[in-house]
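Example 5.3 — IrrE N-terminal-like domain-containing protein
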Amino acid sequence: MTQQFERRATRLLRDHDALSPPVDVEALARTLGMSVNFEELDSDVSGLMLIEDGHVKVAINAAHHRHRQRFTLAHEIGHMLLHVTGDRVFVDRRFFRNEWSSKGELREEIEANAFAAALLMPGLLIRQHVDAKKGITDIDVFRLATLFAVSEQAMTLRLVKLNYIEPD
Ligand SMILES: [Zn+2]
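Solution (predicted structure tokens):
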């Protein structure tokens, strides 16, 4: 499942000539036909996506940090490509919450996050900027997070996933 997301994200970036850091996720979303707006939303809501009659409207929380906004938009792209079959509404909050009614919804959130990470931090590009033999320091994490325009937390999780660093 994970491998499939990695491949799909990389192919998408390559097809749209976007395979370089920082990935221009907003341009990609617009190319994919999404209308993206930055709006005032409840502080715990990262983003909303409304899909109606084939039109995809995304609202991103205007008050959030740019890195978080980028991840949210990448997450919505994941939902659109992986989960949408008809009209739907997605409401994305920062943390997994009990309100998710079914295991199916939780699975979709995990998948959208995995896709978002692969889209914003493609393994192919990370490898070009990491010297695995030297080991990765906190400074490297900071440098990579800046280069890819993601949070240090997101980059750390990604480096764990790609087996560059040990989980805590
Ligand atoms: Zn979601």
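Remark. The longest strand covers residues 45-52.
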